[in-house]
Amino acid sequence: MDIENTKVQMRKGILEFCILQIISRGEVYASTMLTELTSAQIMVVEGTLYPLLTRLKNAGFLDYKWVESVSGPPRKYYVLTEKGVSFLAELHGTWDDLHASVSQIIHPQTPQV
User: Fold this and answer.
1) Is 1 helix (H, G, I), strand (E, B) or coil?
2) What's the Cα-to-Cα distance from 83 to each of 11, 22, 48, 59, rounded to whole Å?
């Protein structure tokens, strides 16, 4: 088994959740998301972000608006839809449960005698 492949798969598993979380803070430009994800070592491949944003948009979780830029072409800023907010809330619950389960396995409690 290749450890790097396993690490990549683990990151991919939480990528949607992280992207929706970033967008939940307010209107956000794709390069800002990419910078934050890369800084957090969640994603380092730019080609992964744009198809995922398109899938989330097509699923009704995101919307966007074009904003004129003084330094180049217009920029697309993403926001969550109501459906996206609900979906993110569900993911938060799942993350909390998953985190608790994995923590229980990684740090088992020693039974008190």
Assistant:
1) coil
2) 24, 16, 23, 9
Question: Nearest CA to 21 among 71, 69, 92, 70?
Answer: 92
Q: Put the strands of the sheet holding 72-80 in their side by side order.
A: 28-29, 72-80, 62-69
Using one digit for the tens of pLDDT, what is the confidence trace for 17-39?
999 999 999 999 999 999 999 89
Question: Can you give the pTM of this predicted structure?
Answer: 0.85
Beta bridge partners of 77: 29, 65
> CB count, 10 Å around CB of 13?
10
State the CB neighbour count (10 A cutoff) for residue 83: 13
Q: Rg (Cα) of the chain, in Å, rounded?
A: 17
The structure tokens listed for 55 are: 């899938």
Go through 40-55 and write b for each residue having 16 or more CB atoms within 10 A of its CB, e for each that does not.
eebbeeeebbeebbee
